Amino acid sequence: MSAESGAPKKAQIIPLKGGKCPICKKQASYEFRPFCSKRCADLDLGRWLDGDYRLPTNEAPGDAEAGVEDDD
Ligand SMILES: [Zn+2]
User: Fold this and answer.
1) pTM attached to this predicted model
2) Measured in angstroms, how far is the CA atom of residue 30 from the centroid of ligand 1?
3) Which of 5, 18, 26, 28 is most buried when burial is the number of CB atoms within 10 A of its CB?
């Protein structure tokens, strides 16, 4: 019927423009917005449920890897 012109038919994670994961400050993904992954979404939820939610202030410049694994 209709031919898609140049559009890759692929299930991919679409990065949100300007959206950053509130947990690890990485690029948020469309699927897990506003987080970058299910891991961070669960982390955030866990923090809320734990009543221990606070904004991270020790943000290191550059590539900050605060012990956050990303094995997705
Ligand atoms: Zn994240």
Assistant:
1) 0.44
2) 12
3) 28
Tell me, in angstroms, the distance from the centre of ligand 1 to residue 25's CA.
6
Integer Cα distance of 63 and 48 in angstroms: 26
Neighbours of 64 (CB within 10 A): 13
**Cα-to-centroid distance, 22 and ligand 1 (Å):** 7
User: What domains are defined for the chain?
Assistant: 17-52 (3.30.50.10)
Helix/strand/coil percentages in the chain, nearest 5: 20, 10, 70
